[in-house]
Write a structure and sequence with these properties.
The protein is an alpha+beta fold and 111 residues long. The protein is built from 3 helices and 4 strands. A hairpin with a 7-residue loop joins strand 3 and strand 4.
Length: 111
């Protein structure tokens, strides 16, 4: 539990302090997705680089945690992104994979 709280606190701090990310496209959803990925990658908590898929309208992070923690974290990250004013079109999701889950997400939520 202590490790999980550390992960949540680290991600919250990263979302608070990250200023800007270079624009990769004109679409606000894509810019917000790359912002989220930059935050995830800067925390050092991810087991692999974060991925953005405009085709699938998704942001995918690989983090070593169980599915209960991932579901909780997913909702918190989505809320933090809304609080930061990062806009996503309807249908965009944030997905969390475990390094042990293969290609399967252990949690996902709407952004």
């Amino acid at each position: 539990m202590k490790t999980y709280l550390y992960k949540v606190a680290t991600l919250a701090a990263a979302l608070t302090c990250c200023a800007t990310v270079a624009a990769y496209a004109d679409d606000d959803s894509v810019n917000s997705a790359y912002y989220l990925c930059a935050v995830m990658d800067k925390t050092g908590l991810a087991s692999a680089p974060c991925e953005v898929s405009g085709w699938n309208s998704s942001v995918t992070a690989t983090i070593d945690m169980n599915s209960d923690e991932a579901r909780d974290l997913c909702g918190k990250i989505a809320g933090m992104m809304r609080d930061k004013g990062k806009a996503f079109r309807s249908g965009w999701t944030f997905q969390i994979k475990s390094p042990f889950s293969g290609q399967n997400s252990i949690a996902y939520c709407n952004l």
